[in-house]
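Lab channel / #folding
Pinned by the channel admin:
"Please post every new chain as: sequence first, then the structure tokens as a reply. Keep commentary short and put observations after the output so the thread stays searchable."

First post following the new format, from NK:
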Amino acid sequence: MSQRTRNVILFVGISILIFLLFYFRNIVAYILIAGVLSLIGRPIMKGIQRIPFWKKHLGKIPSALITLLLMLAATIGFLAALIPLVAMEIKDLSAINITSVMDYLDVAFAHLSDKMPHFISYSGADSGMQDYIQGQLANMMNFGQVTDLFSSVAGTLGNLFLMFFSVSFILFFFLKEELLFSHIILVFVPLRYEEKARHVMTSINHLLKRYFIGIIFEVLGVMTLDTIGFSIIGLGFNHGLVVAVFAGVMNVIPYIGPWIGGAFGILVAIATHLGDSFPDVTLPLILLVLLVVIIVQVIDNVVFQPVIYSNSVKAHPLEIFLVILMAGSFAGIAGMILAIPVYTVLRVIAREFLSQFRLVRELTSNMMDD
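Reply from TO:
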């Protein structure tokens, strides 16, 4: 067989593979989600296996099953506690008259213009900045969109159940057989590269496991600190908890996520204090919300993120920052969320297969001791 024929066969094979991956992208997504969850659940499973039951240690099947049940129970319990609060929050906010909010903002901007004339110029309805901000708040407070979203989700419960069942089923086997996910990937690797590919998979597994576990602790830490902070400043426990959960989830988006959560907190502060004086009650509350966001962000930057974004993936903070910016410009928020895991995978592959290039050696030098 000539080299040209081999190249043609290789090209056709890769094209068919890409088509199949795209065509069955939902199944691929289930496998990837289960793979990530298995990284998080494996330390739990190993801890269960170390516990003696009737002087014996559990095997892989029962320990994998118990781990899966614990993860499902934690997820269901969290959602069961959160969903009623979110539903109550949506009900309260959706009952607010948008016109009242706009009138309140008119008064607020007039007050700020009087107090800070050099920074804020307000001329009633003619203010372009005023119209823009009011328009953005009106869009944010259009909870009819949220209702439509929930209706759409309710209409696809069958697909959600299929995803839930599929991911759980795949996850059980990934937990039971630690190398199963690696074996699925290695099927597509040529035999002459199999040894290097195994080393790559081991390194990726180790780095991403630390990263995703770190992300979970970061989200929970931000949620806890925000809940405490918002409750202390007088936002109210229920309102504060819902805002804190939203802020914690948004915190997964590096750098800009916390400010999205802070903007939502300010919106809730305004919407729930329309009957109060803006300069005496609402403005101080807004400033306190910003103070809580800043304090939590400082703690996150000093304590949480150095461990997660630097130590866990063995990359310099500036390097991570630039990668996130590039990913965000290429694929928006989704790109920013996926930037670090994808970059970690690419660095490991480059270290193993392209180490002859100086740039690759410099970018992966911190990974050599891993």
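NK: The first strand starts at residue 52 and ends at 53.
TO: also worth noting, The first helix runs from residue 3 to 23.
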